[in-house]
Amino acid sequence: MKIFRKRQWRMTIFPKLIIAFLLVVAPIYGIGLGMNQLGEKSVREELSKSLKSKVDFYLNSLEVENELMKGLLQQYAIDKDIQHATFISNTMTIGVWTETVQRIQEKLQLIKNSSLYIKTVNAHILTLKRTISSDETISDTIDPDYEAVATVSKLRGVGNYFWKDRLFMAIAYPGSDLPNMKETFALSIEINQEMMKQSLQNFSDYKNSGAMLVNPENGWILGNQSDEELRKELSNYLKNRPEDSADEDYKQISAGNSSYFVAFKRSPTFGYYLIAYVPSSEMLGPIDKYRMLLWLLSFVSLVFIVAYSYWLYQLIRKPLHRMITGFRKVEAGMMEPMPLPKSRDEFLYLFQRFNMMTDNLKVLIHEVYEQKLRAQTSELKQLQSQINPHFLYNTYFILYRLAKMNDNDSVIQFSQHLGEYFQYITRNGSDDVPLDAEIKHSRTYVEIQNIRFAKSRITVEFGELPAGCGDMRVPRLILQPFIENAYQYGLETKRRDGRIAVTMIEQDGKLLMSVEDNGEKLTNADLQSIEANLVNQGANMEYTGMLNVHRRLKIRFGGEYGVSVARGEMGGMKATLMLPMPQSLGKAAEPSDTNDARGE
């Protein structure tokens, strides 16, 4: 027994892998104790990629913020409140003037809160010689900061300025677009340099490393570096670069007795350079001392790795490749057994069980899977058969009343709509219909209700269906039950001004169909009860109305689709049907059923 277990242990892959790793790792660690793990070339390349990536990411983030600020300035340059305060302030009453100033200040605060890199936002009203700020109330004179952006009136659009070691963005109205018209007001944003400096601290992954923003033209520098020699060297290097040089680069620069790896890139907006630097000593260390030992180690390791790789390929790679090929055949539907390997290890067991699995799959795939599909189809049929319009019992009384009143035109119209309605819901054709046909059926239902209720009492508005959705196949009777619910529970007791809005929009690759009413009977408890039923719907629950549609949509399209409810903007309930857009179904929409669209 012991001899058998010993032989069985020798047949497994585990001891073979241990021996293989010892043959590779033992010589490496025996020769390479005390040697650094990466060579100088690898370190330089990795550092270059890391620094460039950080510089690109941070500068791109700044440029995105700059574009946002530009867009906000351009947007509010034509703001009505600012223009009213500029041109017609002398005609305003004190109350109107105060409200206008408050609205302008609120808008300036919105601009400031839109970005962490905005310190203050000012509106300099030159016609009044006063300034409205996001941080202070309106001043009696033009703020001194206007001097920083005073020349913006000569520009067309947004200008960028350095002034007293501060950064500004500004736009003037009308600017250079109307050269014969005097400047009336200017909007300016001061960049929050403290927030920029805090962001630059993210570059400090190594000791004495960091980042800074440098404008060599005017000597402006922002950063956390206290080494004046490095600042001076970097500024001089950028200033003396040829004009045709690239706006980004990676260099090794000496400053005093130290050497630094430097990556930089120029901002197209403000013209400054973002520079990230790391001391060479922090990265390279004592690599030079081990260079000869590294070559010796590499040669010895290469011999062992080649031999090890070939042996490992023969031992593991080939049977794994065969097994992967077998699994791919199974995925493609080819249930073919694989030849058993000659080795008597774990792979023999795996191949045997794989062949058993393919045999079982051949039997089960036609039983379990088809039974599941039949059960799902049966459930869908059962759910569809439960729909029974609640107003069926009232339609004949309405028809009787119209006939008794000798209103023949209404009798003809009502009978036609009623015939189309019942022909649609009792049709034994396909379970799925074009979405256009479902919407047409809902409109027919509304026409019937318009005869029952006066149009002035309840009005129904249908939105436009997004393009390409009309031919999409959907389960029958998914929209009309929600309109019926709005009539029955939301508006039936409302004597006038009842409204139902049916909207259809595309959002995030999904089609959202909403039915909203302005009924007043919906309580929060009712809404919570409906939401709980939609969430906790189970297999043994009786599905009618809203739950019916919710269950059918999940069966038809998947668990992420269905029905959700909320209180709408009009005060009543808003039920939303979530369907996939035609392109999300994985194939083109099926052609519409002409007979279904006509209700024949």
From TrEMBL:
<keyword id="KW-0597">Phosphoprotein</keyword>
<keyword id="KW-1003">Cell membrane</keyword>
<feature type="domain" description="HAMP">
    <location>
        <begin position="314"/>
        <end position="366"/>
    </location>
</feature>
<keyword id="KW-0812">Transmembrane</keyword>
<dbReference type="GO" id="GO:0016301">
    <property type="term" value="F:kinase activity"/>
</dbReference>
<keyword id="KW-0472">Membrane</keyword>
<keyword id="KW-1133">Transmembrane helix</keyword>
<protein>
    <submittedName>
        <fullName>Histidine kinase</fullName>
    </submittedName>
</protein>
<dbReference type="InterPro" id="IPR036890">
    <property type="entry name" value="HATPase_C_sf"/>
</dbReference>
<keyword id="KW-0808">Transferase</keyword>
<dbReference type="InterPro" id="IPR050640">
    <property type="entry name" value="Bact_2-comp_sensor_kinase"/>
</dbReference>
<dbReference type="Pfam" id="PF02518">
    <property type="entry name" value="HATPase_c"/>
</dbReference>
<dbReference type="InterPro" id="IPR003594">
    <property type="entry name" value="HATPase_dom"/>
</dbReference>
<dbReference type="Pfam" id="PF06580">
    <property type="entry name" value="His_kinase"/>
</dbReference>
<keyword id="KW-0418">Kinase</keyword>
<dbReference type="InterPro" id="IPR003660">
    <property type="entry name" value="HAMP_dom"/>
</dbReference>
<feature type="transmembrane region" description="Helical">
    <location>
        <begin position="292"/>
        <end position="313"/>
    </location>
</feature>
<dbReference type="InterPro" id="IPR010559">
    <property type="entry name" value="Sig_transdc_His_kin_internal"/>
</dbReference>
